[in-house]
Design goal:
The N and C termini lie far apart (57 Å). Helix 2 packs parallel to helix 3 (79-94). By secondary structure, the protein is mostly helical. It has three helices and two strands. Strands 1-2 form a two-stranded antiparallel ribbon.
Length: 125
């Protein structure tokens, strides 16, 4: 009886162990210990602070063409949305050279893609 009990319990446990290994393997295949990171404006920061930080980003490495009038990321025409685009552009362009997503505490990192409609936020692994 003990022998048959061990066989039954092993036959029930083995598929669970196998599924666990498959799950872990599939996660490790899609990750190199990094996560997708976008740099966006912190919603708790005032428009004045965001405006100054965005101006700095646009003159120090961000490509702010898309947030100009009549361009793909002009709308919604808010300081927060424009700053998010500028911060992310700067961060993506320069993160491999040591740039951070700080902007005097005006920005935060997120894994959620902030792209919307025709406005696509860049991401460089």
């Amino acid at each position: 009886m003990s022998k048959s009990f061990n066989c039954i319990s092993m036959s029930m446990i083995l598929p669970k162990i196998l599924l666990t290994f498959i799950f872990i393997f599939s996660i490790s295949q899609h990750s190199d210990a990094q996560f997708i990171d976008y740099c966006i404006a912190d919603e708790q920061v005032s428009d004045d602070v965001l405006q100054n930080a965005m101006r700095w980003a646009c003159t120090n490495g961000a490509d702010c063409t898309a947030i100009q009038q009549y361009q793909t990321c002009f709308y919604p025409n808010t300081t927060k949305d424009h700053a998010s685009y500028a911060f992310n552009s700067y961060y993506q362009n320069l993160k491999h050279n040591g740039a951070s997503c700080y902007f005097t505490a005006a920005a935060i990192l997120t894994e959620l893609d902030p792209s919307h409609d025709s406005c696509k936020f860049g991401y460089l692994p």
